[in-house]
Amino acid sequence: MIDNVYQMIARAQAEYARCIDDDRLEEWPNHFHGQCIYRVTTAANHREGLEAGLIFANSRGMLADRISALREANIYERQAYRHILGQPSILSEQNDEVRSETPFLVARILQDGDTDIFATGRYLDLYKVEDGQLKLNERTVVRQLAHRYAAGAAVVTSPAIALTIGDPNGIGPEIAVKAAARLAREGGAAVVLIGDEFVVRSYAESSAKDFSIQKFDGSTARAGALQFLAVDALSREDFRPGTPLAAGGRATVDYVAAAMRFVSEGHAAAIVACPHSETNVNAAGIPFSGYPGLLARLMKVPEDEVFLMLVGGGLRIVHVTLHERLHAALARITPDLVERATRTAEAALQRLQIKRPRIGLFGINPHAGEGGLFGDDDDRITVPAARRLRESGLDVEGPLGADLMLGKQGFDAFVAMYHDQGHIAVKLLAGRNSAALSIGTGLLFSSVGHGSAFDIAGRGVAEPDAVLRSIQLVCGASRLDEAATS
Hints:
By secondary structure, this protein is of the alpha/beta class. Among the domains are: 5-144, Nuclear Transport Factor 2, Chain: A (Roll); 147-302 and 452-486, Isopropylmalate Dehydrogenase, CATH 3.40.718. It is built from 15 helices and 21 strands. It has a twelve-stranded mixed beta sheet with strand order 12-13-11-10-14-21-20-15-16-19-17-18, with helices on both faces. Helix 4 (172-186) links the parallel strand 10 (160-164) and strand 11 (191-195). The protein is globular.
């Protein structure tokens, strides 16, 4: 047992808050043990037991890296914070460990003096004694929704998410409406649905009966209501849930284009897209092999500069090639393409607040060619790419066979050479709850890691978990200042 544990925790909490409030952020990691767990999550995700959170670190070094990234890359105006802490509750004590819960409120003071409530919630902590002091071995910051009040309406302080409904005849509209309703009900991110009005209203009537549904009025996305941006892309005759149609494919693309305009006009910070059907989009006469290629064309970026990062099951895997015939994919892989994909992965990870990511590179052939025994592809392509990346300062290991590399610990991401090499591992661990982040355009764009499921479309049984995971992913990337204010 620890003597005076209540006083020690109260003192530790006060010193922690003062460190942040006084802008002594470089000292913040010292409140943790060297090997520790720090995560920031929402109350809704914590209650549902959803994996991961907005912020995650598993060492004091990672916390220090995040502060360095904040100092160097913060894009927000200078502001100050003030923590107000409640009394800690001791949940359990065992030997030199103690678990506690402490409520908190964070006020934000802007440069012009305006003050608002930035965050409220509770700290769930595991403290351990180190050199006679309590230090955090684990801290989970469970955040409630923070509002700014304007004209009597609650306006979410963080930017909104544009949520496209995907193929209107698949499960996309249903899971989009369900996700938006859950977030509105439980105090999550502000979401604006992007799709045909009659499609959105049809699913709102069955899946969100307790909400009024409103057209976006061009001002600010609001919490507590379902909002949508109407896109006239589908005829009523072509709205046939469960039936794959070319018209649904064309509408899918129109929704994404509308969402991109919505973001460019400053109404949203990111886009999350519900599932598409590659067959339907191509049937509409639009060349399409997935959202990364579509984004590249819409943003006039070379397609070989935009890549997919699949996230789930504790893994992040970037794909050098994606939806194409394996023979064509292998013919297209070059040292330059591998290097470009890896550098894009590093930039994306840094945007996710990992300052110096460690990246594992898969080989092309089994055992990365086994020294030429299984072909010279790796000796010609992945080996020189990895050498150039390391020479330029990236923390890259490999190439190694994917099976061996995935068994190693401590990597922030992996780079796979082709679709199945990366997808199988994530889908095996995360199932339908994986999220796909398109990287390389500068636009925050995520999509769900599963298909349109036409066989169950319109039946009311589809679950929105993958949509919520994708929203969680882009919300974490769009806020560089969250780790230092909790």
